[in-house]
Amino acid sequence: MTEPNPLAKAEAAVTEAQTNTVAVQLAIAAVELAKAASSQQQAPACQHQAPAPKASPNVGKWAAIALAGSVGAISLALSAIAVAIGAVAVTCCLLVLRSMWRDYQKNR
Fold it and tell me: C-alpha distances in angstroms, 92 versus 80, 88, 105?
């Protein structure tokens, strides 16, 4: 078995490439024709421009709002706890003072 010379290999590659190129061009032309046919069937009759879609909301803005809301809610909860602790402390103090006052009034 003899190998074909490099020139014969190159000629065979060129012939194959040309055949492939024609087949690819034919396939591309068929796809373009199908696109054109489908776009003609679906094209609206009016010629005005459609309104541009609205931009998606800014995610950073909503993240900042959520963060600020969370911080505010936590602050409100902590301040409510502080008020409750203060109320308990004042109540205990008043009860102690009242019992001291009663003891003072009995000893008079």
Answer: 19, 6, 20
